[in-house]
């Protein structure tokens, strides 16, 4: 097969993925390594997740131009779980049993990850999960390339307390696993720092919530008690847009009540007037505005791939970039796509991130990450106002919670995701 033909096949495979499983003949299918892409392309999470499907297609296309993996081309198999949590599990099962994928890249919300987890354990496949999450988990079949609470939420609170002298806290989130658990951790952390219960307000809203008038009014009232107040936001998906619009409508400026978000990025801000939001914050491990040669090249590649010079990049995209390249390296190290061999090969694998450091896969299946806090600018990009000196190792279990503080994840020496260092037993017992 000549190189033009090979490149054509790689492009065709990536293109076919837009339609779901490719329609190549059975013989050709056996000559490819299939990669599952498990992201919502419709429903409330589509605004965030469609981008992650697209970046995976780009990464697979790029790898195929390099010759694929183990001498075989990669084939993307795309499904749409449609922001429906039980459907995630069905689609995961389909990808593993019917499409025979070597690994999956997918999920955004923790509730979708929790939905698919039993399937990946039962069928012994690999999930790369690219979005910040609440911690309290280290599973053999999952690699967490998004941030744990100690790589986002805790540093953000520390920053607000130190730099902004915040004394009152609004913990506002979408009503599902990640916000509830993260806020439980943050509440315990704030109280351990001497914050009184009456200085903490907690609020949850359903997915896709659009009527923010009352909640923002309550936040405004809570912040008028004479103490510096901030909002720590775990609001997710398409609810971000009306929330930020209402902040603007009610004239809440960043100088009055700063908001730090963990789930709003360049993609969500691209669709709204950001002028009223200038100065509000986000804690991520990547921003498009970070000036490195690696990031510039990535943005250029992304805009060329999407044929859209205005298409933005964001943090979970970088997590997929890191995770995908780690998976390729682990497959090449193991000389196999067998999940057991790849799982064993992944800890210790390093991959240059897009912000200038090198991320490493840890024994707890989390990675090392830099932490950045950025201010929203008028153009919807972020100006970095604070960053960690180096990369922070992700903690699977939070030191703030009584049931977790003695637990570690270690799949190398202990072969256990919740090893109790006090009792020296696996299972947290």
Task: Please characterize this protein's 3D structure.
The chain is α/β, with parallel strands linked by helices and 429 residues long. It has two domains: 3-146 and 315-368, Response regulator (Rossmann fold, 3-Layer(aba) Sandwich), CATH 3.40.50; 150-289 and 373-393, 3-Layer(aba) Sandwich (Rossmann fold), CATH 3.40.50. The chain contains 13 helices and 19 strands. Strands 7-6-8-9-10-14-15 form a seven-stranded mixed beta sheet, sandwiched between helices. Helix 5 links the parallel strand 3 and strand 4. Helix 12 packs across helix 13 (339-345). The longest helix has 20 residues, at 46-65. The chain is globular and about 65 Å long. Residues 1-29 have low confidence and may be disordered.
Write the SSE topology:
Layout: H1 3-17, H2 26-30, E1 32-38, H3 46-65, E2 73-79, H4 85-97, E3 103-106, H5 110-123, E4 127-129, E5 142-144, H6 153-163, E6 168-174, H7 177-192, E7 200-205, H8 213-222, E8 229-234, H9 240-249, E9 259-261, H10 266-269, E10 281-284, H11 293-305, H12 315-334, H13 339-345, E11 350-352, E12 358-360, E13 368-369, E14 372-376, E15 382-387, E16 392-393, E17 407-410, E18 416-420, E19 425-426
Parallel strand pairs: 1-2, 1-3, 3-4, 4-5, 6-7, 6-8, 8-9, 9-10
Antiparallel strand pairs: 10-14, 11-12, 13-16, 14-15, 17-18, 18-19
